[in-house]
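Contributing new records

If you add data, match the layout below exactly. Sequence lines come first and carry their own label; structure lines follow with theirs. Keep one chain per record. Anything else will be rejected by the validation script.
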Amino acid sequence: MAAAAAFAPSLLPRLQITASKGRRLPPSIQKAFRHVLPPLSYYGTTAKAESQPPSLPQQRPPPRSVAVRTAYELLGAGHMYLDVRTSEEFDAGHPTGAVNIPYLLRKGAGTLMSKNPKFLDDVSSKFEKEDEIVIGCQSGRRSLMAAADMQSAGFTRVIDVAGGYISWLENGLPTTIK
């Protein structure tokens, strides 16, 4: 039944619900089952689709996230660190050995930010799609978005750093200031 939650009710086929021995169930029960993907069998009740649901695009699982200590151990095992913070944030301090490619760029002097249109091109110029890459930002939000975009672009071994650079500092892990 958990799979049904991923579909919009309008995409589901109309269900024909019958009780055992071919009797129709009350309309209130039929209505309750219309949001469940067929076939459904529950205590002798079956549901059959009048038509097949439309095919939906296959979704990738979200990127894997790990704690900063695990990320640090992965770096020791040969993973590379991609820091997706702005260059100003990166210059103020970053995990030792990190490569900086901003995922978001500041618009003017304000605090508004927009996605770096060259992000994936810049990443592709520094990394191979099979490289083991740990991705971090300041708090963990940008890195998760960057990791998802990289996965969609075919990078197969990306891992998000949960908690970002803030958590990295809180755990006393090695940093470099530019």
